[in-house]
Amino acid sequence: MVRPFYVTTPIYYVNDRPHIGHAYSTVAADVVSRYARLRGRPAYFLTGLDEHGLKIERRAKEEGLAPQDFVDRMAAPFRSAWEELGCAHDGFIRTTSPQHRENVQALWKLMQDSGDIYLDDYEDWYCVGCESFKTEKELLEGNLCPIHQKPVERIKERSYFFRLSNYTQPLLDFYEAHPDFVQPEARFNEVKSFVKEGLRDLSISRTSFRWGVPVPGDPEHVVYVWLDALMNYVSALGGPAEQGKAPLYDEFWQSSGTITHIVGKDILRFHAIYWPAFLMSAGIRLPTQIWAHGWLTVNGEKMSKSLGNFLPPGPLVEAFGADVLRYYFMREVGFGHDGDFNHRNLLNRYNGELANGLGNLMNRIVASIVKKSLDGRVPNVDLDSLEEIDRQLIDKASAASQQAGKHIEALAFHRALDTIWELVSAANKYVDSTEPWKLAKQDDKTRLEQVCYTVLETLRWLSVMLFPVMPEKCNELREQLGMAPLLPTEQVDLWPSAWGGLRAGTRTKTATPLFPRFDESQERSILERLGVEVAPADKKKAPAMTETEQRKDEFIEFDDFTKVDLRVAVVKEAEKVEKSKKLLRLIVDAGETEPRQILAGISEHYAPEDLIGRRVVIVANLKPRKLMGLESQGMVLAASDESGLSILGVDKDVEPGSPAK
RNA sequence: GGGCCCAUAGCUCAAUUGGUUAGAGCCCCCGGCUCAUAACCGGGUUGUUCCUGGUUCGAGUCCAGGUGGGCCUACCA
Fold this sequence. Notes:
Layout: E1 5-13, H1 20-38, E2 43-50, H2 54-62, H3 67-84, E3 91-94, H4 98-113, E4 117-127, E5 132-134, E6 153-162, H5 168-177, E7 182-183, H6 185-196, E8 202-203, E9 205-206, E10 214-215, E11 218-223, H7 225-230, H8 232-235, H9 247-253, E12 258-264, H10 268-282, E13 289-293, E14 296-298, H11 313-320, H12 322-332, E15 339-341, H13 343-373, H14 388-409, H15 413-434, H16 436-441, H17 445-465, H18 471-480, H19 520-529, H20 547-550, H21 558-562, E16 566-576, E17 584-589, E18 596-600, H22 608-611, E19 615-619, E20 625-627, E21 630-632, E22 635-636, E23 638-641, E24 644-647
Helix pairs in contact: 2-3, 4-10, 6-10, 11-12, 12-13, 13-15, 13-17, 14-15, 14-17, 15-17, 17-18
The chain binds one RNA strand through helix 6, helix 13, helix 15, helix 16 and strand 18.
């Protein structure tokens, strides 16, 4: 029950400034770690920064700074962002720290001792933005990286390799034995099917830049940034380098505690495949779970610098407060799904749930009825003499507490909050049904006290259950209840389970409403200040695609057909493409000044020599495309059925280049 | 090409894993209340559970096929 709990966010690349995507991951990690602490578990929450790599080295140079000075400068906004958001991390790892570098080298040696590292030549395209090699087929037209749309570079170097191929089966066995290793399940399936295809050895060193951790014993090489980065989860705790004198490492990694890595879905492969393989090789225990969450769009659009909707958390925190933003993150989108950050929606949830729901419940009881009729004090009631309707609310609270706890443990934050709001709603209903204001007028003091106590105690429960998500607001709520701030203590489970924790006679306090409602003009000015364009009359939801539009005609226009430039061409040369099963490389004369190179996937059906001299029909204006590193400047038409494939030709020797129509 | 996931009210999502009449929230309309932040409470409207078939006493749930969407992966010209 008191197993240690270790949760991490990804380490963010310092080249960026913090945005709500980073904030979302970090808040989630903060929420689970706060929850674990409330349950009395020792918890450690790690976040940090990835500060190495070619991109940083270059950026620093551009700015005329030493790399270390550059990253120092870029690190500051992250630290302050997490502070503003109330993310109380225990550790903040930076990959340039000596402790981290030592541990990366220690990991390297452990992997080397296992015989999993060897030296070989490597040549391929490299994208500086991704910090990774790209295969030909991934590249866009003109050798552009598909992610960054920037040119990749041809890099040939001697490189150390990790025998990832040896871990295909061990990984599959591990997945089999740990069916919850990756969440959500659909993502786990993707990981498994990727591994089942068989893994190739991984290049894990670079000589093309210096800004990284030197390979032990071969300082010409720098450790591959992903190996470097993944190691942070262990190095932050002291790691294998500090063997025997790293109490955090012993407590949170080497114990039987839970280790949860929260990651974005884009970096799942590194965490679910490479990282466990590295650890297996080094003989270090594996994490318990990798949780891949989705992406946030902003008002329905993908967040990007070029679109100008790159959203830093700072101004939002300023406008709404950290807890409101945290609440919105956790409430709005199912963890694991993609979601949308929508300002309008945030305001609706704020007014509808926080202000009208929870805030008003608190206000109507504490600042009004209890204050006016009970002298602002928690009444003394006999819990055994409560009425049925009181017990129903208590039962509801009990159920909510249990359910919400389970949901948070499963990182289903939206469900947890859903459950908790059912209780808020039930409590408001309870107040309406019991009508304490009438009891006050009727001088039915005993009943009035019972009703007020029941609501006050419900509020106390809520102040605990919502604490992981809204720590500040919950402590304010507690202050108004006359209670001390929550102080999680190891070995003590504070999660609500016993009714009656609120002491009779406690003096409640009235203060400003917890969540003052925004009226329309306030909403407008907030949105204006944030620079959000608001559609006047509820701009119709993204028009998506209407079903009717999708049903296109079965026919195409003649004009459509004439767009296709079909021509007769004569095959001049033909050869098999090396290492390819299906492709033939053809040089054809299409009546143009230069011959064309066309790749055709017909190698299984035609021998190259049988094609030379034949007339074929080609699509001449097809956009060129690279296949196996060779550009194909057109397409050879062929018909196929179960028995095979047959190239289309002409039955007279028409001139090369003749149009076909 | 191979694979995975999904499809439920106008929107966002539930449905105890095959069990009664498919439910919430938001939105909209009507009513009540007046302690409260114009808050709260009640009532009302909206469904071919994507389609077709199958298994079953019983299917939103399981099976087959199809359609549409998302994702992973691949030498699709």
